[in-house]
Design brief:
The protein is an all-alpha fold and 344 residues long. It is 76% helix and 0% strand. It contains 18 helices and no strands. Helix 11 packs antiparallel against helix 12. The longest helix has 30 residues, at 255-284. The radius of gyration is 23 Å and the shape is globular.
Length: 344
């Protein structure tokens, strides 16, 4: 439990490595004419092959095995994970959790009950807010953005590589800090840094971007630095927390269903932002950055008033120790008695 956040963020860490590799490939083949784009597109199939092979050899989790009645296999998997022979205490706790989960015959119906609203609202909101930081717009269109402020084609691709490196290194900061500092502090610090970065970028482009779509070299370099500061703060906060927090907040009986709803919101708004950004950028120009700055301000207020701290709280104790004690969300819990227990 003390390393739960760090282990979860490894997912986001490898995503950032993938983004960096993609940017390196784009930069490497940018001068290969006329098939450079075909090489870049074709190489995207390589990680897909690794994912397919991995899906064939990945092991099941103890909870999944026990929930499907494979108690012996679940016990062996738990022994392998913990590196211990004596796992009886934890095994009993998993069996109890699975038994509670089996009693829920209609998880979708359970998910939309009043008592399930706090984790559902938090899970979906964090995923949606992750996209409204503007990060995917920045990462998807970094080369276009840097060309707009005066970099040449190859230079813009190289700048995108630099921001991808910042993304990877800053995610490591999150891995180290999340279980020490907590989720809320990282999110709030990042909101301030992202807000300042977005306002500064917008202000520079609004006042200094020339009609030809270029900036002085000095200001263009400042924009690159500000983009890196923005990516840096996102990478140790809303990037990994967007996946970590929803994975912690749902109880076992609605965890799979609830997390699926949260992720679907992420995918939907990733699509919307990706499709809308270029049109918004052309029409709003520098004001697009002020638009995202306003979203970031709203996100900060959301964290202050609605997002509870989950650091150090066992997942199966969230209801009693988090939701029933939060000044806003406790009103949703009513008098329902929920049997909880701690994972040791």
């Amino acid at each position: 439990m003390q390393h739960r956040g760090a282990v979860n963020i490894l997912f986001q860490f490898f995503v950032t490595i993938g983004i960096l590799v993609a940017n390196l490939v784009n930069y490497a083949v940018s001068s290969t004419h006329p098939n450079g784009w075909r090489i870049a597109l074709g190489l995207a199939g390589v990680p897909a092959v690794f994912l397919f092979i991995g899906s064939l050899i990945i092991s099941e989790t103890p909870s999944s095995l026990i929930e499907r009645g494979k108690e012996f296999e679940g016990k062996e998997a738990l022994r392998k994970i913990r590196g211990l022979d004596d796992v009886e205490s934890e095994l009993e706790q998993i069996k109890l959790a699975c038994e509670i989960a089996r009693q829920v015959k209609h998880p979708y119906k359970k998910l939309f009950k009043r008592a399930s609203m706090p984790p559902l609202i938090i899970g979906r909101s964090v995923q949606v807010f992750q996209q409204f930081t503007g990060i995917n717009a920045i990462m998807f269109y970094a080369p276009v953005l840097f060309q707009t402020v005066g970099f040449k084609s190859d230079s813009s691709l190289l700048s995108a590589v630099i921001t991808a490196i910042v993304n990877v290194l800053s995610t490591i900061v999150s891995i180290v800090a999340v279980d020490r500092v907590g989720r809320r502090k990282l999110l709030l610090q990042a909101c301030m840094q992202m807000f300042i970065s977005m306002v500064a970028i917008g202000s520079i482009l609004l006042t200094h971007l020339k009609p030809t779509g270029s900036l002085d070299k000095g200001l263009a370099a400042v924009v690159v630095v500000l983009v890196c500061l923005f990516v840096m703060s996102f990478a140790w906060s809303w990037g990994p927390m967007g996946w970590l927090i929803p994975s912690e907040t749902f109880p076992l009986e609605t965890r799979t269903t609830g997390f699926a709803f949260a992720v679907s919101a992420n995918m939907l708004f990733t699509f919307i932002i990706a499709q809308a950004f270029l049109s918004m950028s052309c029409n709003m120009r520098a004001y697009i950055f002020f638009f995202f700055a306003i979203q970031i301000l709203i996100m900060g207020l959301f964290v202050v008033f609605l997002l509870p701290e989950t650091k150090g709280v066992p997942i199966d104790c969230m209801t009693e120790r988090v939701w029933k004690k939060h000044p806003v969300w406790k009103k949703f819990m009513g008098k329902e008695v929920v049997k909880n227990y701690e994972m040791t």
